Amino acid sequence: MTPSPSLSLLASLLLSLAHALAPKEDKFWIGDMRLEAPFVPNQFQFAFSALLLALKFRWKELRQNRPGTLAFASVTVAALATLLFVPRLFNNPPIANDAMSAAPGSYETTSEYLQGAAADRGLSADAQIAEPGVVTVQTETTTPSANAAPATELESSGDETVTEVPSATDEPIVTQSGEGFIAEALPPPEASEPLAIPPPPVATAPEQGAMDVTSATSPAEQSLDASVPIEAQSPATTATESAAPDDLSAGSSLNQAPDTLSQNEVGETGAGAELAALPPPLTPSANTTVLSTQVREDSISLNATDAALLTIYRNSDFAGSPRIHRYVEAGETLTFGIPFSLYTDNASAITVTVDGSSFALGEEDEEQFRVFTKP
Amino acid sequence: MSLHPRTNTKRTRVPSEQQLLLLETFLKGDGPIHGYDLMKATDLGPGTLYGVLKRYFDDGYLKRSTEIVQGRNRISYSLTERGLHYAKRALLEAEYERAVKNESSKNESSVAMDLAMKDTVEL
Q1: Is A32 at the interface with chain B, CB within 8 A?
Q2: Model pTM?
Q3: Could you say which of B46, B71, B72 has the minimum Cβ distance to residue A33?
């Protein structure tokens, strides 16, 4: 007597799965295949075909009898796939501070600058921004021109730092300047040499009027009305600025030789010309002495007692693009987290407070590279 | 949507060569045939074969019967009366279409031959 053929375990499992998946009215076909499977040489292939056939039956049954269920299942699968895979596509790692996309030699007025200025004025950074009396010229990334001369300080005797940029309008611009008004004078640009720096987008907009406000993040500055004089818009600073003996026009405050530069040209090149005066940021060479200061605190403040070129890197090795590269003025206070590294061309003008004690970084007009790290 | 969800318009189409081979196998066979024997005779895969069997069974062309082979239950299939008529008609139609196709190809070839002969004579 011939022994009865047997069914392998794997084929049996597949056929059981197929039987479970098949619709009720078609289950007996999978049962037929299960009964036939022991007589088939390739049982696994036969059972796998039964599984596919069961899925086909189920699909047909859903499509014909329960299209709503099929649609719901399709939407559910699509939603699950979206939830699982789409967030991974957009899950980019956060950009570190050191990797900020500023071009080398770029000029940035950052929130730290605002914080420093606000601390100097005894205000929070938000309050400083919201105060309409301070007008700052900001540009995100502007490459300074190599041919431009450094900026010259006209007057530096107080706390206020106001940099004014004349507009492209033909109206005369009159602003109040009192104690502490600091205007950075610029040399007249050569008429035959085109400026390599594109002007800030808002600075060239005629509708901005007398004051140039280019910060995209300071609504108070943007709310300045060009048609209204500055003193009418800035009651907080009018008290000190009204004592100014002279009315400085924007052209004269920014340009010591206004006769060579038209008002319109000043408006187009004002901020850019100021930035062009900055030398490119320096990094220490191999034989340069880099001083190091270890600080136990998480952040320290730098106080400017005189004008100085200050370059700050948010790391301890002067790597990457500088976070700040500009001339600081007397009275400015800048706070930075540890570690950071700095360069200044006037070490005596920068006073640092470390662990409760303040000291100047160095001698007058001494160029210095210094690194602040944690012990 | 059709009022009869089980109605499949694809069933009215002309049977494929493999389906015709399956029907021919049923006609030639002298009794019920098992699934594996049908697979061997028609060279169809299991999924395809049982799909066609299900379609013919739903249309009433097939009947199933159970028998015990080597101590195990086994299902065999055979044509019903309706299936027998359907199979004969389908095979006849297929043969007729094949003949028509051959005739047309013959005609085309004969026309081409006539034209060739004509050209030869004219030359």
Answers
A1: yes
A2: 0.38
A3: B46
